[in-house]
Amino acid sequence: MKKQLIQMWKRRPRLGRRGKIAWNLLVSLLLLLYIWGQFEYPLPFLTWEFRRLERVNLMPRSEILFSGRASKDIWELDGYVLQLSRDVVLGRTPDGITTAVLDYAAFPRRTGDGMIDRYPLEEGPCPTPFGFSLGHLSGEGNFGFVCLLSFLQVPPETARAELTVDMVYQDVPYHWRGQGFFVGNTVWFFPLDTPEGGYSDHWYCGADYTLRLYRGDGSLLLEKEGAIPWPD
């Protein structure tokens, strides 16, 4: 039996140069497919992954208003620098807002290493949390982690945006006041300080806010009060 197997191996068809190249390509493709599967088939581009998450979670296809990459997108304001620490995408439909936080910076990264939420769409400037999205805020010798709160549909004539947030979190009063960073396409980011101690993904949802928008000459353009919404 052993001799027969040896003879069959010796009589096997020999691959030519092209056959060997095709065989090597096939083996490489199968290996890459296996490695891709170990990471749960993540898509190579941020917006593609966002579209995949929309389909998987049975969410309507949205108009993407903003997409930002961790450690690459940077905004400056009055000596302070805001930088994303996670990839984020924000989309809008006629009846809601979709936000996604993806940890593309992590390796190995799996498709489950992200969060996608739906929020109600309001008239005028609309507050939209980013779930567990952290950023870096540095300036005047200080550096710290912040949580991002976005407002979209901000009037284009806005030159400065100020926000006040008040709530009681884990029986401790929380107060934040600061300016926003304009990131384009009617979207502004506000870097909220993180609470002392631990906090949950949507810890600032339900907090009261006051938004004040100013024109270039310093005059008040709009003032709005409300509560930061919870995801649907």
Short structural description:
18% of the residues lie in helices and 45% in strands. The chain is α+β, with helices and mostly antiparallel strands and 232 residues long.
Helix share, percent: 10-25%
Computed structural class: alpha+beta
Taking the sheet with the most strands, its summary is: 6 strands, antiparallel
From the spread of the alpha carbons, the general shape counts as: elongated
Strand percent estimate? over 45%
Beginning-to-end CA distance, first to last residue: 68 Å
Uncertain regions spanning at least 5 consecutive residues: 104-112
Number of continuous helical runs: 3
What is the ordering of alpha helices and beta strands?
HHHEEEEEEEEEEEEEE
Mean pLDDT over the residues: 83
Quick one: how many beta strands?
14
Radius of gyration: 25 Å
In the sheet with the most strands, the strands line up as 2-3-7-8-12-11
Topology:
Elements: H1 2-10, H2 17-38, H3 46-56, E1 63-68, E2 74-77, E3 80-84, E4 87-93, E5 96-102, E6 114-120, E7 126-139, E8 142-152, E9 160-169, E10 172-179, E11 181-184, E12 187-193, E13 208-214, E14 220-227
Antiparallel strand pairs: 1-4, 2-3, 3-7, 4-5, 5-6, 7-8, 8-12, 9-10, 9-13, 11-12, 13-14
Structure description:
With 232 residues, the protein is of the alpha+beta class. The protein is 18% helix and 45% strand. The protein is built from three helices and 14 strands. The protein has helices spanning 2-10, 17-38, 46-56, and strands at 63-68, 74-77, 80-84, 87-93, 96-102, 114-120, 126-139, 142-152, 160-169, 172-179, 181-184, 187-193, 208-214, 220-227. The strands form three sheets. A six-stranded antiparallel β-sheet has the order 2-3-7-8-12-11, with no helix packed on it. A four-stranded antiparallel β-sheet has the order 1-4-5-6, covered by helices on one side. Strand 11 and strand 12 form a beta hairpin. It is elongated and about 90 Å long. Mean pLDDT is 83; it is low at 104-112.
